Fold:
Amino acid sequence: MGWAMLPKSCARVLLALAVCAMCVMLACGRAEKPRTDTGTAAPPPAPSTPSAQSIAGKTWDVKMFGDATGYRFDPASLTIRLGDGVRWTVVSGLPHNVTFWSDSIPPAAVPVLRANMPQTTAPLTGPLLMNPSQTYTISFGGAPAGTYHYYCTPHLAFGMKGTITVQ
Structure:
């Protein structure tokens, strides 16, 4: 079917779409302008990423609930030692996860937690646990002492928050 066979309104729409597609391709295809400076300064070294640390001490258990009394971690506050681990277990009210606020943990803890949190779905965010008795464990090996505030992403609006203090 040629252009002459199309109604004028369809031909105009197709032409407009073709023009838009060309503009997008031209805009996306532009390369960054090459740098012309001849400075000899080397770029700063990339910060080293810590490797995951295993649990060297005790593994503490925290249960994840969602029922008629509310959504909560039990215990909501926990004090552990450097090198301990925490295992969260789904009991009810799923799905649950564990997410740390990056501005509510010791600053040096961010790279350590990123290394020690398996299967993250976003920075400092563990996977959604979809089944009763499913667990998620994080090592606090290499983590600096301090207070770590965390929450359950799906149930933050219901106040599902917790605190871990690393001594």
Observations:
- The longest strand covers residues 59-67.
- Residues 27 and 33 are 13 Å apart (CA to CA).
